[in-house]
Amino acid sequence: MHSHRKTSLTAATLLAAAAVLAGCERGSSTGTGDSTGGPGGCPETLARAEAAVRQAERTDVPWNGPTSGPEAVSGKTIVYVAQTMTNPGVAGAARGVTEAAKVIGWNLRVIDGGGTPAGIQAAMSQAVALRPSGIVIGGFDPNSTSRQIAQADAAGIPLVGWHAVAAPGPSERPKLFSNVTTKVEDVARISADWVIARSGGDAGVVVFTDASIPFAKNKSELIRKELATCSDVDLLAYENIPIPDASTRTPQAVSSLVSRFQDEWDYSVAINDLYFADAAPAFRTAGKQGSGPPFNIGAGDGDPSAFQRINNEQYQAATVPEPLSEQGWQIIDEFNRSFSGRPASGYAAPVHISTAANSRGATTWDPAGYREAYQNIWGR
Predict the structure, then answer these.
(1) SS3 of 179, please?
(2) Cα–Cα distance, 206 to 155 (Å, whole number)
(3) What is the DSSP letter of 369?
(4) Who's near 138: CB < 8 A, 6+ residues apart?
(5) DSSP state of 71
(6) 187-215 burial, b if ≥16 CB within 10 A, otherwise e?
(7) Per-residue DSSP letters for 8-48?
(8) pLDDT tens digits, residue range 66-89?
(9) How far apart are CA 179 and CA 322, in angstroms?
(10) How far apart are CA 21 and CA 169, in angstroms?
(11) Residue 280: is it exposed, middle or buried by C-beta count within 10 angstroms (0-12/13-18/19+)?
(12) What is the spatial distance between Cα 214 and Cα 219, in angstroms, rounded to a whole number?
């Protein structure tokens, strides 16, 4: 049990935590060592978490997305504007869009924004100038290209986002016909539930986040809230490391955390898998085994390198991956609905947990059934 490390929060600790949660610091840690509830464990929470994790780890879940919709409209051209094709999530979704466009019989062009604000704006300007049938907002904030978004809207070019805004489905501000993503609430909850279930409701946890990004901060707050439903799960530290600084900051932070908490730290949740790529050398230097503890889960995106770490037991035990190819197919289907004057499907894929046991060596999460379903809808 970890209950022996429960301490009362001091006023200073509360103030430090508040400062981090307000995003007042660029990269910081609050090590509270506090219990997230009263004594006595959490049998009801544990049972619920175990059931949720069992469901999320299934690989044989039948397709629960659209099964009806308009037949394929012909002769369309789509431009996929990528935040950067070096982002595995953005690139994975692009591959799905490419595959689906070929099946439905449309032309597709990918323009790489290169990961910089200027590059993304230039890519969007180029996309609008091409006057395509539709534009994909591939993994960046549409508000950063508000002028181009307005131009596309004025030209009657529908926009479909991939991870463009926080919630799935249509968006009025910014104007998107639909946004394709899993629900952040579901991703956050299941990653915390995995910790609760795997630990038997008794864990010392570090959460890695980027409090400078509202979406990421919200996700980590949801993770924190779900962990707090179990009284013997202790939040040891809430580590705020901006993603652009992760490669330089994470190794130092991990070394410090190992020194502070020793074996008390047996689980981690990060808002993105990339933190564990950067943490691995520090864990190795500290003499930690790749198979854990700490047992680490990434609450998104499930890129190939995360699967490789999981399958090879190298400082990551699980991920909550996006079904990237499936989402690419959904993007094409959403455009087809737009071109046909139909409403967006509003579909959001259910969350999944990938581990070495259920991924069977795969480097992506590619659920069954969606290709056949969309081909049937389109008449292709």
Answers:
(1) strand
(2) 48
(3) S
(4) 80, 81, 82, 83, 90, 93, 94, 162, 164
(5) P
(6) bbbbbbbbbbbbbebbbbbbbbbbbbbee
(7) PPPHHHHHHHHHHHTT-SSSEEE---EESS-SS--HHHHHH
(8) 999 999 999 999 999 999 998 888
(9) 14
(10) 28
(11) buried
(12) 9
Amino acid at 88: P
**By three-state DSSP, how is residue 135 classified?**
strand
Q: Which two tokens stand for residue 376?
A: 């049937």
Q: Which of the residues in the chain have pLDDT under 50?
A: 3-26, 32-40
- Of 138, 74, 73, nearest in space to 110 by CA: 138
Whole-prediction pTM: 0.87
343: left (phi over 0), alpha (psi -120 to 50) or beta: beta
DSSP letters spanning 330-368: HHHHHHHHHHTTPPP----PPP--EEHHHHTT-SS---S
Tokens for 210?
């980027």
Residue 263, both tokens: 């074996």
Per residue in 104-159, pLDDT tens? Answer: 999 999 999 998 999 999 999 999 999 999 999 999 999 999 999 999 999 999 99
Phi and psi, residue 12, nearest 5°: -65, -40
249 sits in which H/E element? helix 246-261
Which among 316, 179, 232, 324 is positioned nearest to 4, based on CA atoms? Answer: 232
Nearest Cα to Cα of residue 374 among 132, 187, 105:
105
Residues listed for the chain:
380
What is the helix, strand, coil percentage profile of the chain, to 5?
A: 45, 15, 40
Exposed/middle/buried for residue 140 (C-beta within 10 Å: 0-12, 13-18, 19+): buried
